[in-house]
Each structure stands twice: as structure tokens, then as C-alpha cells.
Amino acid sequence: MIMPSGQQLLLPVNPVFIWTSLIAALLLDMLPLGRVPWMPDFLALVLVFWNIHQPQRVGIGLAFMFGLGMDVHQSALLGQHALAYTALSFFATMIHRRLLWFTVPSQALQILPLFVVAHGLEITIRMISGGVFPGWLLLLAPLAESLLWPVISVMLLAPQRRAPNPDQNRPL
Amino acid sequence: MPLGTLDRTPPPFFKQGPSALSKLMVFSALALFLMVADLRFRITQPIRAAVATVLYPVQWLALQPVRAAQYGGGYFTALSQARTSEEAARQKLATQSLRASQVEQLALENSRLRKLLDLRERAALTGQAAQVLYDAPDPYTRKVIIDKGLLQGVALGSPVVDESGVLGQVTRVHPLVSEVTLVIDRDLAIPVLNTRTGARSVAFGEPTTHGGGLELRFMGSNSDVQQGDLLTTSGVDGVYPPGLPVAKIDRIERRAESAFARIYCTPQAQVNAAVHVMVVKPWSGEKLPSATAEPVPVKKGAGK
């Protein structure tokens, strides 16, 4: 098998876990914390993560559907998040073979342009459709998402890093 | 099969589905179509209502920790604090009850005078209480979501007031929740009346000022406005009932190069912290005079 040397062989992913993580990210995004422009978009992050690690299971269509949900929740322009997530998902699918050969911190660096493009798309659309510029703090959102990449890599890969043959001494 | 896992299902060799690029094309086109339909033609309300209803359980779940924190915070406030707030509420109630009894009497007097002068009766206000669920996180507009919807009889375009003034207007109605655009949103305009001078004008939302405010546009630089003037709804629009406080004039900039003054106002309602609001039925203006009799057609050539 072709894989980066010195890496642990992972267990197969549980589809239930993928869905649970996506719903949990949606819940995190829906927490009523007020209007914070620099708030990282957890749902986008988790979508990109599964797009890169499991492109057969989480694809562009799912990203589009979740984007529609976010639009309705935020009462934003219908299709704004859908377009951003579609683009995000497409670029993630494009780089998924290359990205996993790098270490996790450099993965975070390579993910950053994707989030910048997604947020740039959203702000361009809203400026064209006559929105109010929300301030430069918005630029921190892609940065925060990129910084969360190592955290989410550890959290979401933890179930796959369990022992393949659990016994008394190693229950997990 | 993803890189470096023990997944035992081999990846499909030929059936890979449509390519990522074609999927991108299709879904981007769909998203663009939805945006245009939403912005220009406003035909996406059924999609929104359906998605909102599906999302409602998740939203409800996301609201619970915040509700629990609020409840817990209220539970642990000191007894003395609760007592002082109750004292203040009682005092307010006492002063308001005095005013309310005066209002009853004045309303009676007003209706009699109106009858005497042959003016039309004013329609009574009806409304229902609602609670603000959350501030819409969309940073480009200023909206809140309230917990009453189509099933509770909220009508599109209803004015929403809080305890101190006009908060906004219902701009979207979903089955279980509705969306209220605040008076400080840039797309909302509200006809107002200066209570000191009686001059009517229109206040527009101005969200870029600190904390959000309103702007009185198209007032000449020699117009009679002063700092601290109270603006109330004028009632000429047929939506907002007359006499509700909207804003106070905060700052006036008179410029030599412009024929208009820039007048900034602060909203009276708590646009950033409203919790309990009242959804008022859209006021259809003074009752239109009913056509008492069919217009009699003039007979042509009746004199023959």
C-alpha cells in the first residue's frame, strides 16, 4: 500500500460517526452567540476534513445541502453558504490525494487558501447584493478555521486510531 | 479507499460517478439560481420554510445550553437584587397605572370628540407576545428570529415593538419561527413624525454607526430639528400604528456643501438586547370609508 512512512494504519471509518460529527458541527454553528464576524465556521471545517479523508462518502452534494441549511438558519441570502461550501468541497476534493502526504501543521497551512476563497466568495456575493460591510475582523475567520485544523484532525481521527484487536490491557 | 486505512471495500474502479468539476458546475449554477431567485424574484419562500422546519429541532437543541445558562444565572442572583428589581417594577407599575387610567379617560374623550367632529374611529391595536430566539448571525444585515410563526398567526409585514419602542418589522414568516428586520437595518425605512414640530419624514436604518442607529434623510439643512427630539411613527404608511416611539435625534451635521442635513438618531427599542417583544397586527390605516351606495350611473339622454 502506498502511504507516508511512519504513519499508523487507520481503522475503517464508521459512517454514523461522520454524520454525528457533521450534526455536532452544525449545532456548534447554531449556538446563539450573537453576531461575531470572526467566528470560525465549524461546519465548513468538518466538511473539508471529511472531504479530504473520506471523499467517497462526503462530497460536493452534501456540502451544498448543509450550506442551504446554514443559509436558512442565518437568514442570509439563500445559496450563499451553499455556493461557498460547494467551492470549498471542490477544492478539497482536488487536493485530497496530495494533502495527506504532509504533516498536520503544514496541512493546516495548505488548507488556509481554501477558507480564504470560501469567505471571499461570500463577502463578494453579499457586497454585490447590497449588504453592509461587517468589518475587517471577518479576515480572522479563515485564519481561525485553519488553526483549528490540527485540533480537528486529532479529534475526528481518534476513533480510527483505536487498536484493531482490543484486549484486556488495551480496551480502546 | 482512503489513504492509510484498513478499509476492506475496494474503491470503485469504473463507476466513480460524475466528476468533481461537473458536480461543481451543477451545484454552483443551482446556488446562483437560488440567489437570483431569492434576491430578485422572491420565490424561494417555500424552500426556506421547508428547510427551516427541518432545522427546527437542531435549532431548539442548540438553544438549550444558552437557556440553561440564563436560567441558572437567574437562579443564583442574590435575593436582595431580586427584591430591588421587584421594588422598581412595582414603582413603575404604579406610575404606569396612573397614566393608564388617564389614557382610558382620554381615549373616551377622544372618541366622543371624533364622533362630534364626524371623524372616523381609530382601530384598536391587537398583538401577541413573542420571544427573541437568537440574533441572526449573518453579519451583513441586522435581523432577529422570534419564536412565533405562521402557525401562531404571525402575518408578513407586522410591526414588532418592545417595551420602549418600535423594534422592526416581520420580513419572513416560517411555519414555527419568523424573522424580524430591525429598524437599524439598511433596507428598512420607517415613516416618522417629529413630536415637537409635527413634521413628517422617513427614517432609514444606519447599521454602520456605533451600535447601529437611524438616519433621517432628505431633511433640508434649515429644517427645524433639534438634538433630543423624539420621533414617533406617523401612521401614514398603513403598517405601523401612529404614536409608537421610534428614535431620538442624537446628532445633527449641517454642511455648507449639501442642501440636506445629516441627522443621526438612536433607536428607542433595545435593538441589541431585546428578549420579549410584541408582534402587532399590521395596521390597515384608518378604516376606509365604505361605499354606502352604488354609484348611480348617469343616464344618458334622460331629458329626452
Walk me through what this model shows.
The complex is a heterodimer of chains A (172) and B (304). Chain A is built from seven helices and no strands. Chain A has helices at residues 15-30, 42-53, 60-74, 80-99, 104-128, 140-147, 149-157. In chain A, helix 3 packs antiparallel against helix 4. The longest helix of chain A has 25 residues, at 104-128. Chain B has a domain at 123-285: Rod shape-determining protein MreC, domain 1 (Thrombin, subunit H, Beta Barrel), CATH 2.40.10. Chain B contains three helices and twelve strands. In chain B, a hairpin with a 6-residue loop joins strand 7 and strand 8 (213-220). The radius of gyration of chain B is 27 Å and the shape is globular. At the A-B interface, helix 1, helix 3 and helix 4 of A face helix 1, helix 2 and strand 1 of B.
Short description:
The complex is a heterodimer of chains A (172) and B (304). Chain A has helices at 15-30, 42-53, 60-74, 80-99, 104-128, 140-147, 149-157.
Number of domains of chain A: 1
Q: What is the typical, i.e. mean, pLDDT of chain B?
A: 83
Give the tally of β-strands of chain B.
12
Q: What would you say the CATH architecture of one domain in chain B is? A: Beta Barrel
CATH homology-level superfamily of one domain in chain B: Rod shape-determining protein MreC, domain 1
Radius of gyration of chain A: 17 Å
The largest interface is: A-B, 65 and 54 residues
Give the strand content of chain B: 25-35%
| Largest beta-sheet characterization of chain A | none
> Main beta sheet of chain B: strand number and arrangement?
6 strands, antiparallel, barrel
Helix content of chain A: 55-70%
Instruction: Describe the global form of chain A.
Output: elongated
Number of helices of chain A: 7
What is the strand tally of chain A?
Answer: 0
